[in-house]
Amino acid sequence: MTQEINCFEIVKDLIDTSVKKLNLNKSVYNILSEPQRVLTVQIPVQMDDGEIRIFTGYRSQHNNALGPYKGGIRFHQDVNLDEVKALSTWMSLKCAVLNVPYGGGKGGIIVNHKELSQGELERLSRGYIRAIAPVLGADLDIPAPDVGTNGQVMSWMMDEFSRYRGQNEFGMITGKPVIVGGSMGRVEATSRGCVFTIREAAKVTGLELNGATVVVQGFGNVGSIAARLLQQEDGCRILAVSDSTGSAYNPNGLDIAAVEEFKARTGSVKGFPGSKDISNDELLSLECDILVPAALENQITDKNAAKIKAKIIAEGANGPTTPEADRILADKKILVLPDVLANAGGVTVSYFEWVQNQYGYYWNEEEVNNRLERKMVEAFNNVYGLYRKRKDVDMRGAAYMVAIERISQAMYMRGWLGNQVYQEVKREVKLA
User: Fold this and answer.
1) Residue range 187-342 in CATH 3.40.50.720
2) What is the DSSP code (8-state) at residue 61?
3) Residue ranges covered by each domain of the chain
4) Strand boundaries in 64-211, DSSP class E
5) Which residues are documented as binding site for substrate?
6) What tens digit of pLDDT does each residue of 359-370 get?
7) Residues at the annotated binding site for NAD(+)?
8) Which residue in 12, 85, 106, 311 is the catalytic one?
């Protein structure tokens, strides 16, 4: 995370602006501007050489007006408290945009997971869950994977929490392998949801996806699967992809399945046969129809936004675009599909997984994907409809307004706004 740009201050400013545009009482901002609970824990882990190392972990629970807290757990060396608070706030907004009955949560540990052995990673995962177990549960706070974690980590965490409770607790965490209560389609869900929003954006902008050119920054789980789906299902030409080690660029297009195999074998996309390694700035400024930033926060800034030539930007990552960059992109008439909409497929299928755990009845992949498509299309239409109606917001502003309207009404109905009267103005956001 770029230290000069504080994601938490950015999201608070956007909430403040949205509250004012919705003519809501300032009490709404006062409640949403800080998480309801934040934990900082110290996790002792025995390393393979016998040394005991102490790792710092966090869990931020932002708002549960709409339902239990929900959000991923990130293992990364740059994790910090403000980042975790920002991510939990985004999760509240994301769930509200998709009309999923959750609030926002987020967790993280300051660690370079790539430096840990499998045994060290398991002991760290279990230690973290033991440390925050009192504030977790299927009806309280439900974690999921994020940067640096995966289904195996979720399995260890679920098992540790089950030991803590003395019974199987499959529903306390999502993103698990199918064999231990996971959902079909969950691994691809964030990427597939992003692709669904791209398809809807292509419809309203008149872009023909078959043959459309795509650049993907970040070739992890989200970016690689989105690239594969866009190529195999929509006929897009993927010009370039990148990861933390470098990039692969070919103006004639890349075979994404082959790139995935190459990265699995070598650990990098750099050096893929027939491709050229270009800088991050060069990649972002390539002429293309669709740009998918799927890496980390603050990648598109006022330093590089003017160089971007894409027609549509679909944010696969959380917070990849700064407010200054948003203004530049709006001036350039680039349609930005914001993170709280475009990458909400993961939490949506996590919700499906949670529902399946609660009922003990599991759906096939086709049913999961169909349900996901309906939710993503409905959310896109709500946000795009408000964006077209209002002349003073971009797509991000419209998404924030949809989310904050829903959360504020829930808080009002629950009596959280004190004696303040919920202003009876004509609501601009369609509520389900």
Assistant:
1) yes
2) E
3) 36-172+179-184, 187-342
4) 69-76, 103-110, 141-145
5) 70, 94, 350
6) 999 999 999 999
7) 190, 221
8) 106
